[in-house]
Fold this sequence. Notes:
Elements: E1 4-12, E2 16-20, E3 25-29, H1 32-37, E4 44-53, E5 58-63, H2 66-76, H3 83-104, H4 107-111, H5 118-128, H6 132-138, H7 172-185, H8 190-203, H9 209-220
Parallel strand pairs: 3-5
Antiparallel strand pairs: 1-2, 1-4, 2-3, 4-5
Helix pairs in contact: 2-3, 2-6, 3-6, 6-9, 7-8, 7-9, 8-9
Amino acid sequence: MIGRVAGRIVYKADDHVLIDTGGVGYVVFCSDRVLAGLGAPGEATALFTDLMVREDLMQLFGFPTLVEKEWFRLLLSVQGVGAKASLAILGALGPDGVSRAIALGDWTAIKAARGIGPKTAQRVVNELKDRAPAIMAMGAGPMAVPPPVAATGTEPASTAPAAPRSAATPSGGAAQSEALSALTNLGYGPGEAAGAVAQAAGDAPDADTAGLIRAALKLLAPPA
């Protein structure tokens, strides 16, 4: 399994980038959003990768964070969602946008991705609503972003990515803390996030992290 590619950009195409890692070039497929965020040819870059192997094809898919990579893998578990569709969803919404859409049951946001129809969008929301909060919680803490390679083409010794947070679900105060971190990671202000989590915890004192995140996001959603 190739989990990370670091090197210098040779060229960028419409749907992939070629990265030279010291004499070996890797073709890495990325979403439009990720490709737009990469540097120009000749610049250093690094991506977390997921290798897809089929009988007649091997493809690498690249992501700037481990959280986005895990979203890609989770989206692939939905019936009718392949690699192209998964990248389209992430490209249109980003990992934070996918988090919000699934937590709020907003399948119309998923449908906005290129090539995604209403039935597929509804399946994404319905099939992932109970599994998505584990990845949201991953993004609650500091998540390592692949650093660029050094000018010499070698990687600094301290660039190993941080291990993902445990997917174990905390309870009580720990669940509230995890939910609060997840919401602030999604861009909500500390005050509004704390208020929503507190209200959600008051309504359901025994709720786990996933339940608190869903309930708090519904409270924070603008009125229809």
